Amino acid sequence: MYKGKKVIAVLPAYNAALTLEKTYKEIPFDLVDEVILCDDASKDNTSELARSIGIEHVITHQTNKGYGGNQKSLYNKALELGGDIVIMLHPDYQYTPKLIPAMVNIIGDELYPVVLGSRILGKGALAGGMPLYKYIANRALTLTQNLLINYKLSEYHTGYRAFSREVLELINFNANSDDFVFDNEMLSQIIYAGFHIAEVTCPTKYFEEASSINFARSSKYGLGVLRVSFSHLLQRLGLGRFRIYEQPQKHAQARP
């Protein structure tokens, strides 16, 4: 809890048994009220381990729904539980839970409604083990996105994110892809809706147990990012209409 606001950490998990407990132990429970883990049909014992270490809310997908599908389950559950500040933390220990207080403070003090943990701001991405091709792709895609979306972020590709309840209620994240491009669709929606985004420096950690996608999946992701960016441009200029920028039905109906 922070200033009367309920804080929930959500963990999108797939074969995370080797790193889950280490990640969980570093969560600051003086701030975080609830933890939700969604196991996207892991082949290891992620769900069982999550329950054994004390995670009360464990969602288990019987079939793999993808990274985006995993997040949809998590955010819907967080809203159901009354979360006011929701932090997505990967259970592969690639992002340090020690930044949660800073992210919570920014949203809880109503400075910004969205916070990203940027691996680029501190200029330590390569030193932290990010593959060179991923670093180059990150920089090239981010430059292109900033131009097309008409915003300025150091990177759009971090998986460390925190959101206010208002943001999650007003963007149509359930209309997004179930794949990795979900993250970029979500940022595009947030910017299009007029919300502002803060960034904090986040250490880069690539190691054997950390989850990562291969070159082929990365290439598919890159093409998806470009598609989202051009869709955003067309929507912004009034030259196209895309479902992901529509408000969720219940909020659209509530408008006078």
TrEMBL record:
Residues 10-169 form the Glycosyltransferase 2-like domain. The keyword Protein biosynthesis does not apply. GO terms for molecular function: transferase activity. Gene3D superfamilies: Spore Coat Polysaccharide Biosynthesis Protein SpsA, Chain A. The keyword Transferase applies. Keywords: Transferase. InterPro entries: Glyco_trans_2-like, Glycosyltransferase_2, Nucleotide-diphossugar_trans. PANTHER family: RFBJ PROTEIN, UNDECAPRENYL-PHOSPHATE 4-DEOXY-4-FORMAMIDO-L-ARABINOSE TRANSFERASE-RELATED. This is Glycosyl transferase family 2.
